[in-house]
Structure formats: structure tokens, C-alpha cells
Amino acid sequence: AQIQFADQKQEFNKRPSKIGRRSLSRSISQSSTDSYSSAASYTDSSDDETSPRDKQQKNSKGSSDFCVKNIKQAEFGRREIEIAEQEMPALMALRKRAQGEKPLAGAKIVGCTHITAQTAVLMETLGALGAQCRWAACNIYSTLNEVAAALAESGFPVFAWKGESEDDFWWCIDRCVNVEGWQPNMILDDGGDLTHWIYKKYPNMFKKIKGIVEESVTGVHRLGRATVAAPESLEVSKARDGSNWAGFTWAGSNWAFLFPSLKRTTDMMFGGKQVVVCGYGEVGKGCCAALKAMGSIVYVTEIDPICALQACMDGFRLVKLNEVIRQVDIVITCTGRVPALDPKGPRQQDGVSDLLALCMPCLQLGWRSSSDWCAPLQASLRTPELTWERVRSQVDHVIWPDGKRIVLLAEGRLLNLSCSTVPTFVLSITATTQALALIELYNAPEGRYKQDVYLLPKKMDEYVASLHLPTFDAHLTELTDEQAKYLGLNKNGPFKPNYYR
């Protein structure tokens, strides 16, 4: 069905009255104060060093079923959510359509993703569709504290704050799951940690899970290994196996976040800088294209001969990392969980550049805590002979005795959501896909999906794309009967086979 978008009209007074000007002045002043106070959520320092786990906080309705940094930041977080809504048209359209029907009525969804304004729009859309939600963060650095506060103020049980410890990370997940009188029947995960936590610690609860929607490639692989013991579930892999997600997020959005992330953290000029990108998958392709556009000299490392050939044909020199580590200015790893850089390498390379920036951009998984590959890397760098200096939030200098140093960004973890953002419109695509997948899972008749991992149906992928086209005032061409017959396609799609990415 075609979704009708309601016209939105706003009227503004041409000249505010004296009272209006005074109110406006107070509003601006208050906005500045709110903005300043919320800045603590982006930094490691704060006037209040008390752990959120030790605080007794309640929202305006008297509920304390949440754990965030500071519930008083809710108003500022609400403004961020409202901005995100403007760039997520498909979710807002789904929310409008659900005014009369509640396709997720009775669904109890437990989620573990990045807690950002875009996630908030998704959660509130799921709530409008009739679902009950409990949420934790999949990354210890990507949570926006003010957004988490806004969700808690709206009544969503959210357990997340920026800078969690590893113990905090698992504690928050457990608080989402282990609630008396609440049995989740759906999972929305990023990286598989929530899924495996329930599977291992609450096996009886896990048996009642009707379906799982997974965000990342790593999570897909982990679920694939566990399907023998898994319940009947639909696994929707958008991260790579949905063409929308692969085309726009991994490759496209790297253009948007790589430059501001590196620029904010290093203040480097990239023209003429030598950069090695480890891995030429969707993430690596986007990073290389962005760096090339900025005038950088780009090298690529790759293990896959097909991706390697693609890199060569795109004009990049294929090298081994040890061939260029002594001369490059920046190392960007795009290889998922396993490190491309030997943890002992930077310390043993006497010829390393005077100033080497090391970072991981948009990943194929959600980084957790010190249990990931960055743990051995950090361990190799946290030795008595090396000095660590904090430059600014998410930026550290690791200094050798001879004065040479590495600029380590986000402690080797996720760069895009720790030091920058992903474009909201791109995240609208994945969030809409997740919502539709949850609806499909929850309403699927028994027996439709077997005990297996499923890719995103291409028809659903195309529907998500169609929901975003009105934003561009785009008009699709319709196949004639003769064309459809010749191509062997239905005039209404799907137009691509399921293996197309």
C-alpha cells in the first residue's frame, strides 16, 4: 500500500513581542546551558564520578526501572531524537500506519544495540507498533547519555551509559533480561552478545524466544554455529546480505564519517598523507574512496584475491603491512574481530613513523570491551617503557622512550560512533529493516521458518528502499507486461534474486 505523507505546516510570527523576545532569550539561554551540561556525556570527565549503578534515579512518572548516567539530561536528548526523526521518514511512515493496527501487540523485545538518537526513533516506533522493549548497549563507548536519559524519561527500561566497564556491560544486559514477570519473546541484537547471554545463562527463557534479528556479520556467524540448539527463528542479516545496507552503510557512509572522525581526533591534513587500509571489503572500499578523494596516498592489505584484484583495479597499491608500516602516517583496520596489526608490532617496529595514527572505522560487529581483539593490542602497548597521554576524549598518545609515538583512537575500538556519527538517513534504512523483520518474525505462522538462519528476503529489502524514495520526490518506472514476461519477473517485484548484494 502506498503511504501518504501528511503535509507539515508551521507558522512563525514575523516579529516577536517584548514578552516573546524575553521568552526567546530565556529559551536560548536554557538551550545553551543544556547543551553545555550534556557535553559531559561525550567526554571521560564529569563532575559526578558516581557510577550509575550506585545512583537512585527516577523519571518524572516515578519509575526507576532504568540505569543511565543522568536522567536530568532527558530534555536535551529529546531534542536530538526529534532531529533524527526528520531523517528517518520510513520509520515515521510505519508509525503513522500503525495508528489503527498494532502488528507488534504482545511482542516483548529485548535489544542490545548502539544507544543513539536513531535507535531511540526505532524503539519508540516499536512501542507505537505495540511492543514492549527493554534495551542495553552493544558498545561501551557509543551510548549518548542524553538520549538514554530521554528514553528512560519516556518509560523505556534502558540500561546504558558511555564508558561502561566490562562488568557494567554484562550487568546491563542481565538487567534487561532478568526481570521478574517479564519473558522476552523477540531479540534484536548487534554482535550476538545478548543472544548468547540468554542462550547460556537462561536456557529455558531462550527456548521461548520466537525469533532473532541480528545486525552484524559477526553475530550472523555466531548464530549460524548455534542453530543446532537454537529455537525456530528468523535471522535477518542486513549488515552485508541486504543490498540496501551493504550499498549505503558500509561503503557509502564511510565517506560521511571517516573524514570528520579523523579530523576531529587528529587535526591532520590528509592531502599527501600515506595511509594503509587493512581489508578491502565494503568498509575498506568506502574508506579508500574517501581517503583518495582527500588526496591521500592509499595502500591496501588484503587476504582475498578477489577483493585484492578489486583494490588494484580501483587504483590502490596492494602491499603487506610490514612493507609500509615504517613510512605510513595512518593505519585503518577494516577486518572485523581479528586484528590486522600484530599486537606486538608497534612496540617492536623501531622504524615506525614519528606520528602514527591507528584506528578502526565502521566495523562488521559491535565492539564490546576489553575482551575483544583490542585487549591484546592494548596490553602490548601498556608496558612500563611506554607512556600513555590522554589528548582528548577517545584520543591517546602512546609514547616510546625515543619520543616516537602512536595516536590511538577510541582505544582501538569502533571509530564511527565513538568519535563521530553515521548519517541518520543511512541508519533509517537499517532501522526500518529491523522493524519490518520483527513484524514478520512475530506474526509468521508456525512452520514458516525452520530452525535456521535466514537472509533478508529481497522483497522486504526492496520495500524498505521504496519507503525512502518519497524523500527525494522519486518516481519509479513500471514494467510493461511484455517486459515483465521477457525478464521473467513480477511487475511488483522482487526484481533481484536473494543472493544479490
Structure description:
The protein has 501 residues and is an alpha/beta fold. The longest helix is centred in the middle third of the chain and has 24 residues, at 243-266. The radius of gyration is 24 Å and the shape is globular. The two termini are 25 Å apart. The strands form 2 sheets. The chain has an 8-stranded mixed beta sheet, covered by helices on one side. The protein folds into 2 domains: 54-247 and 422-468, Adenosylhomocysteinase-like (Rossmann fold), CATH 3.40.50; 254-339 and 352-419, 3-Layer(aba) Sandwich (Rossmann fold). The chain has helices spanning 18-38, 74-86, 89-97, 117-128, 145-153, 166-177, 193-201, 203-207, 217-226, 243-266, 282-293, 305-313, 321-324, 345-348, 374-381, 416-419, 424-443, 458-468, 481-487, and strands at residues 108-113, 132-137, 158-159, 186-189, 211-214, 274-278, 297-301, 317-318, 330-333, 355-359, 387-392, 395-399, 405-409. Strand 2 (132-137), helix 5 (145-153) and strand 3 form a beta-alpha-beta unit. It has 19 helices and 13 strands. Mean pLDDT is 76; it is low at 1-47, 227-253, 343-353 and 362-373. Pfam families: AdoHcyase (PF05221), AdoHcyase_NAD (PF00670). Residues 15-24 have a biased composition (Basic residues). Residues 258-422 form the S-adenosyl-L-homocysteine hydrolase NAD binding domain. This is SAHH3 Adenosylhomocysteinase. Its cofactor is NAD(+).
